[in-house]
């Protein structure tokens, strides 16, 4: 199991950060996604531009504070937690992602993969919020 945790400061209102992160109907700002498929109120599937699907189940949603979900695809299972906090000059977002590789040979690559994915996601988010 690998875990990656990062906290970023975003120079915009907490409400804007929350809305952008949790609005799964507007995901064009995500450079890695082709589309999101809604299954019901707590289940959705992200489809990458390369066609790979990952299923998600929302496990907690506390408006403007906490959003968590589990995730699973053919290569991994895990969880993601986003903690949102207001700051005097913007907002803080702390993302914690934990992943279990389903194949033993993938395990050494998971920590680096998580760091790259989190960086891409947060870079995309910052671009979206500051445009």
TrEMBL record:
Classification via SUPFAM superfamilies: Bet v1-like
Protein name: SRPBCC family protein
InterPro entries in UniProt: Polyketide_cyclase/dehydratase, START-like_dom_sf
Species per Swiss-Prot/TrEMBL record: Flavonifractor hominis
Source organism superkingdom: Bacteria
């Amino acid at each position: 199991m690998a875990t990656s945790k990062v906290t970023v400061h975003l120079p915009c209102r907490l409400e804007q950060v929350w809305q952008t992160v949790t609005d799964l109907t507007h995901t064009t700002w995500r450079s890695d996604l082709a589309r999101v498929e809604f299954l019901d109120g707590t289940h959705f599937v992200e489809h990458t531009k390369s066609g790979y699907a990952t299923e998600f189940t929302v496990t907690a949603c506390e408006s403007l504070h906490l959003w968590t979900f589990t995730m699973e695809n053919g290569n991994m299972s895990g969880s993601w937690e986003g903690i949102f906090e207001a700051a005097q000059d913007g907002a803080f977002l702390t993302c914690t992602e934990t992943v279990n590789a389903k194949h033993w040979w993938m395990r050494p690559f998971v920590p680096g993969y998580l760091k790259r994915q989190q960086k891409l996601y947060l870079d995309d988010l910052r671009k979206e919020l500051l445009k």
